[in-house]
Design goal:
Elements lengths: L10 E6 L7 H5 L3 E7 L8 H10 L4 E2 L3 E6 L5 H19 L13 H22 L3
Antiparallel strand pairs: 1-2, 2-4, 3-4
Length: 133
């Protein structure tokens, strides 16, 4: 399995104040992390992966393959930074390989026989209910 390796210099981070619970910490600390990555100009990722990423995760694409991931789960900036990187890694691993093509299969002869016999039994059962006594 070939690992995708992206140099850390391709990422740019910006920080903002998080929303939600956290008391005074929320009002004072810029703990929300926004990871920006220009995937279009990145030589680390192949064109196929770029297309699959854009197809599977359009909500993270800003413009033409400019990836933006935000995290404000944790109260610390470093933990949110790690969370952004791990989320990006998980997404890239998901689109690293093309999906397998589905092979069309036929049902087994015994399965067809079973289905037809069940239909026949049910038909007989309903036919008996219809007849007047």
């Amino acid at each position: 399995m070939k690992k995708i390796s992206i140099p850390f210099s391709e990422f740019s981070f910006s920080f903002a104040r998080s929303a939600g619970a956290g008391g005074q910490n929320v009002n004072k600390v810029n703990s929300k992390v926004i990871l920006d990555w220009n995937m279009k100009d990145s030589p680390s990722v192949s064109e196929e992966i770029k297309q699959r990423f854009k197809q599977n995760f359009p909500q993270y694409c800003v413009g033409d393959l400019q990836i933006q991931i935000t995290s404000q789960k944790n109260r610390s900036q470093i933990a949110n930074k790690d969370d952004c990187i791990h989320r990006l890694i998980r997404m890239l691993e998901e689109v690293q390989y093309p999906p397998k093509k589905r092979k069309a299969t036929k049902p087994k002869r015994s399965a067809i026989q079973e289905r037809l016999s069940t239909k026949k039994k049910d038909s007989e059962k309903k036919k008996l209910r219809r007849e007047k006594f």
